Amino acid sequence: MKNHPVQISAIRDMRDWSARTHGEGCTIAFVPTMGALHEGHLSLVRLACGHADRVAVSIFVNPTQFAPGEDYSTYPRDLDRDTALLAEVGCNVVFIPSASEIYPPDFSTNVTVGGLTERLCGKSRPDHFSGVATIVTKLFSIVSPDVAVFGMKDAQQLAVIKRLVRDLHVPVRIVEAPIVRESDGVAMSSRNANLTPDERVEAKLLNKSLQAARKAFSDGERDARQLKSIVGDILAVSTFGRVDYVECVDRETLKNVDEVVKPVLLAIAVGFSRARLIDNTVLKP
Ligand code: AMP
User: Fold this and answer.
1) Going by CA atoms, what residue is nearest to atom 5 of ligand 1?
2) Ligand 1: does its nearest atom lie under 6 Å from the Cβ of 153?
3) Which H helix or E strand runs over 50?
4) Of 55, 89, 135, 153, which is best to mutate to test ligand 1, by the most ligand atoms within 8 angstroms of its C-beta?
5) d(CA 218, CA 228)
6) CB 151 less than 6 A from any atom of ligand 1
7) Which three-class secondary structure state does DSSP give residue 33?
8) Which residues 6+ apart lie within 8 Å of 150 measured at CB?
9) How far is the CA of 115 from the centre of ligand 1 (A)?
10) Residue 113: how many CA atoms within 13 Å on its side-chain side?
């Protein structure tokens, strides 16, 4: 059992901690999360420990990335459990800001990453990535990390953040972490808790469909339409899930590709009754 991380909720205290840490000559790695932590999040924290002297994790269910009617109010929250888990993996500070301090009533600035935020999940969640880009910009400004770790699970989010860091000259290095899966292949997600037992069984189809496309790809298939139809045919078996998209896109621009001639992202989203699941795989020729 390691030391419990220090809990900070005021923005000024978080800034003071970062300034003090840098003043001591230490580097900071940062892992932003919305809590309800699982092994996927913890893998990011472990990775972060190898990239800097100190690790800060934020837990903030960001209201601006949820549309009205989405699961903001039902998003799982369990701070005591989260901090106990973080104590085991070497986190030094947990930043838990309040929504009222992050978004005062007269807040009016948003970050939009044109071209990337409209694609894939952006089609059905038009304001989502602007909410993500805005909160991540704010957190970078408050925490001042040297390195920040994000999961490949949210591949579009990663592309958006890499672009905003580049475009806005944010002095932080982005490290990407592989997807952590349950033993049956389902990508770990805080939202899996909102699946019914029947839906949880069907959730296996997401990874199964991606694996089938990977197999066809390793057998030489390079046509994006064919690869997408392999995925789509397997997802079509689902009774409870509604396929939102199956896309084969460039990893950086998220633009559709016709043929896989360089590494591409094969990404899917499936909506269930109370949870929308995303998953992806990278195909490298
Ligand atoms: P969230 O709490 O869902 O906002 O996720 C916080 C961070 O954890 C993001 O960088 C996610 O991509 C990452 N993450 C979530 N689930 C997984 C997973 N199964 N494997 C790897 N990283 C993940």
Assistant:
1) 33
2) yes
3) none
4) 153
5) 15
6) yes
7) strand
8) 32, 44, 157, 158, 161, 174, 175, 176, 177
9) 23
10) 30
pLDDT at 34: 97
Q: Is 191 in the pocket of ligand 1 (CB under 6 A)?
A: no
Q: Which residues are catalytic?
A: 41
What whole-number distance in Å separates Cα of residue 28 and Cα of residue 18?
8
To the nearest whole percent, how much of the chain has pLDDT over 90? 95
For 213-271, write each residue's pLDDT tens digit.
Answer: 999 999 999 999 999 999 999 999 999 999 999 999 999 999 999 999 999 999 999 99
Ligand 1 centroid–CA 31 distance in Å is 9
Q: Is the CB of 46 under 6 A from ligand 1?
A: no
Which atom of ligand 1 is closest in space to residue 190's alpha carbon? 3
- Given the DSSP bridges, would you call strands 264-271 and 276-283 parallel, antiparallel or unpaired? antiparallel
Alpha helices in the chain (DSSP H): 11-23, 39-49, 79-88, 99-102, 121-124, 128-143, 155-167, 197-202, 204-218, 224-235
**Does the beta carbon of 154 lie inside 6 Å of ligand 1?**
yes
pLDDT at 195: 96
Q: Is the pLDDT of residue 134 over 70?
A: yes
Mean pLDDT along residues 132-142? 98
